[in-house]
Design goal:
The relative contact order is 0.12. The chain is 69% helix and 0% strand. The chain is mostly helical. InterPro entries: LisH.
Length: 206
C-alpha cells in the first residue's frame, strides 16, 4: 500500500473512532500516525524552546521532501536553533555531529544557501568566542520571530495543506478517492476476457 492510500485509510479509521465516541483511541491514532499537522502545537514548541520535539514533529511530515527549498528552509530554522541550544549547553561533540548529519545537508536545497551558511558559521564562531548568547539570544520574542520565519517557508510546503485541514471534513471525498484507488488496483489484476473455443470472436464494429 502506498503512502497516499495508507493515509486515506487511516483517516477513515480515525473518523470511525470519533463517530463511535472513542475519542481516546482516535487521539492515540492521530498522535501515532501523524494524521494532523497541528500548527498551534508547533507554535507552543517554538515559544517554549523545545527544539528537539519541534524537529522530530516537523521531520515526520517532511520525510521524503527534505530536498525541496520550502522543506529545507523550514527545517533549517528549527535545526539551527537546536544546534545553538546544544552549543549553549556545551554539548559540542553532539552539536558538531548534528551539524554534519542534519544541518549541513539542508544547505544544498535551501532557497538562500549563502545566508543560511553564514548563520551556521556565525553560530560556530560565536560559540568559539563565548558570544553565543549575544549572537543568538534565547528570549521568547526571539523564539516567536523564529516561528514567523519558519511559517514563511512552511506555508510553501504544498504537501502539508491536506494535513492542516480538520480531520472530520471532506470524508465523502476521502471515501471516493480511496474507492477509486482500490478499483484501479483491482483492474490491474483482472485478466482480459478470453475467447471461448468454438465461438467467434466478438465484433468490435457497430
Amino acid at each position: 500500500m502506498d503512502r497516499q492510500s495508507e493515509w486515506i485509510l487511516l483517516r477513515r479509521v480515525y473518523a470511525f473512532l470519533k463517530s463511535r465516541g472513542l475519542r481516546a483511541s482516535a487521539h492515540a491514532l492521530e498522535k501515532e500516525a501523524r494524521l494532523k499537522y497541528d500548527v498551534r502545537r508547533l507554535y507552543a514548541l517554538f515559544v517554549d524552546g523545545r527544539w528537539r520535539r519541534a524537529d522530530q514533529y516537523v521531520s515526520a511530515f517532511m520525510r521524503g521532501k527534505e530536498n525541496t527549498p520550502a522543506a529545507s528552509g523550514a527545517l533549517f530554522v528549527i535545526r539551527l536553533r537546536r544546534l545553538v541550544e546544544a552549543l549553549r549547553l556545551r554539548n559540542r561533540f553532539w552539536a558538531y555531529g548534528y551539524h554534519v548529519d542534519r544541518v549541513a545537508p539542508l544547505l544544498k536545497g535551501h532557497p538562500d544557501r549563502a545566508a543560511a551558511s553564514a548563520q551556521v558559521r556565525e553560530a560556530l564562531r560565536a560559540d568559539a568566542e563565548g558570544e553565543l548568547g549575544k549572537a543568538f539570544p534565547d528570549r521568547e520574542e526571539n523564539r516567536r520571530a523564529c516561528f514567523v520565519e519558519f511559517l514563511g517557508y512552511d506555508n510553501q510546503n504544498k504537501h502539508l495543506y491536506r494535513c492542516s485541514d480538520p480531520l472530520d471534513l471532506n470524508l465523502k471525498l476521502i471515501a471516493r478517492n480511496y474507492s477509486l484507488t482500490m478499483r484501479r488496483r483491482r483492474r490491474r489484476h483482472i485478466p482480459r476476457r478470453q475467447q471461448v473455443p468454438g465461438q467467434p470472436a466478438a465484433s468490435t464494429t457497430t
